[in-house]
Amino acid sequence: AEVVLEACRQDAEALEFASASVRGDREVMLVAIKLAPAALAHGSEELRGDPELVGLAVAGQWWSFRHASERLRGDRGFVLPAVRRDGRLLRYASPALRGDADVAMAAVRSYGLALENCSSDMRADYEIAHAAVNQNGLALQYADPALRDEQRIVVDAILNDAKAFRYSSDRLRKDPEAMAVQGMAGGEMPPTNEKAPPPEILESPDGYVEYRRPRAHCWPVVLCAAHGGQLRPADVPDRRSGCVEEDHETEDLANEAWNEFGKGKISAPALVFLRLHRCKLDGNRPRRDCCEGQNDAALAAWDAYHGWIADALRTCVEQFGFALLLDLHGQGHRRLVTELGYLVDTDELLLMDDVLDISTRPTSVDALLRRDGPGAAGRPGGLSALLRGKKSLGALLETRGFRCTPSPTTPEPVKAIPRHKFREAQKEGKAGGDIGAKTGPPSDEAKAVTYFWGGYTSRRYGAADTVPPENSPLEAGDRASWARNVAAVQLETSWLGVRDSILPRRAFGETLAWAAEQLLEAWLGWTMPEDSRG
Length: 534
Hints:
The structure is a single chain. By secondary structure, the protein is an alpha/beta fold. 40% of the residues lie in helices and 8% in strands. The protein is built from 25 helices and eight strands. It has an eight-stranded mixed beta sheet with strand order 1-2-4-3-5-8-6-7, sandwiched between helices. A hairpin with a 5-residue loop joins strand 1 and strand 2 (209-213). Helix 6 runs parallel beside helix 8 (101-110) and helix 10 packs parallel to helix 11 (151-160).
């Protein structure tokens, strides 16, 4: 046990590899959690349901509550006082408690933005929404659309934070009183090029998918996130195959990136994210195997998620002539490094640049290399330069401190290893398969064989003609038209240094926005018009 505790002092994840008896030892866990609250994740089921141990962990790191047992996350006697202290914990409470009026009210009084994690009924509750915007005006964005048209709620939200104005209804944005609170002439809309009309926020009927559709378009970019959802409705059965672990904090990462893309611009790009937990639905898989038993509710969510991604991309192509899809994920096998997937596999990335440049295999970024496409004359090179050259996305992100692969510094995510070693790793589930977004096999071992080089979403939109008929490709007309002008990148972000807290998430979002603009200028000759800047 002493050896384990010493290892925990160096790395909280070390407890994962301890024996079951050690992970079930309460005294060991007590000391480990004091050293590193995240160690709760590796305790036994019984200890992850221990109120004292969980309380100690969440006092150190509130998000450690996600590692508590399902029983404790559904225990009203534990959750109600916990969210009174810190409303952020509501994110990881059971669906039943997120729909409990007392729990929801306690959470939003402590942390207004917890309204996002309330059930749809609670987000439509006048008193709960009003309490939320009084605590944080920006909670207005999560209120039911009908309440964003309620004058008292909107005015109080604006009084708390003037930026809440953008989330009010169209009608109230023209209301003299609301405008006066905002500091504008009564009854008049803001002057031309005022920072953006708020996005149109759409939800699927069951609340499992959200689409933020910009009303003004200044970015040929679409953001999506399929694996960060928290909802676990009882009427959607758990998946029994494939990875079922969430990509921790990727929903928050998508939100921060969306906000950073919008800063200083007349609008943020389109954002689509899936609120269902990955154990219920994997939006990055074909429709036929995205859920258990072809459940109707899950399939409807898949349809909404991909239908809205397609809508956003089509709109971008109509507006700009091209679109860039950034598919946000998380991985835990390569620390402090973000993997960028282009549908170029590990073997191809071992090739010399000259050989890679003449490859005819489709990638998800071929739209950036089309000979008849925009900016063709001024491009900085071929496929190798796009993937790992000085003007690649990896290079741009690295200039601001976020290590990536492929990139000029790490052009080959996976070094050459004997094929039999790779096959052995595949059999053990350490290569070519799903690995958790925060946990996983030992990092050195995993890095040798694992690289997520792109999934279903990047293939469906960035290499649409390569999706077989049984895997729900786009319609033939879409593949022949707007989809030819879509480039897609799968970003498998690091937990440490990117997703582990709000400041790195915000910094990564800011850097990603800057890098996307630089990338599009280098490869397509696109620059954002001055009148699109706030």
